[in-house]
Write a structure and sequence with these properties.
Radius of gyration: 13 Å
Distance between the termini: 31 Å
Largest sheet: 5 strands, mixed
Number of domains: 1
Helix content: 25-40%
Order of helices and strands: EHEHEHEEH
Shape: globular
Structural class: alpha/beta
Strand content: 25-35%
CATH superfamily: Glutaredoxin
CATH class: Alpha Beta
CATH topology: Glutaredoxin
Number of strands: 5
CATH architecture: 3-Layer(aba) Sandwich
């Protein structure tokens, strides 16, 4: 099944900073245009996040916003970052085990 990409698309590092500051639970999905893993993981994460409406999402393309890699110390994509009240709580990168990620999201969501 094909899922359209429903993640808000960031256009600047400032927009990402403001998004994290504005949302108690802020999920940042960092990808690149020619990253096959990024495009495979994204719909799975998007589907999973439907269970957690409190978690707000934004996607950043590191090709379009190169400073995102330095800002969040990202060495490989996709990078999945969950911020709770502005602090990074979950970080997964490249090869993401969906069951583990789901458990982590559940733990955070249960506490908020």
């Amino acid at each position: 099944m094909f899922y359209p990409n429903n993640f808000q698309q960031a256009t600047s590092i400032e927009e990402i900073r403001e998004f994290i500051a504005a949302n108690k639970l802020a999920f940042v999905y960092i990808s690149r245009t020619n990253c096959g893993v990024c495009h495979a993981v994204q719909p799975q994460v998007q589907e999973m996040l439907e269970e957690f409406p409190a978690i707000k999402t934004i996607q950043a393309n590191a090709d379009d916003i190169p400073e995102v890699a330095g800002e969040f110390t990202v060495f490989t994509v996709p990078a999945l970052l969950l911020f709770v009240e502005g602090k990074e709580m979950i970080r997964e990168a490249r090869f993401v085990v969906m069951d583990d990620l789901h458990r982590q999201f559940q733990r955070v969501a249960d506490n908020f």
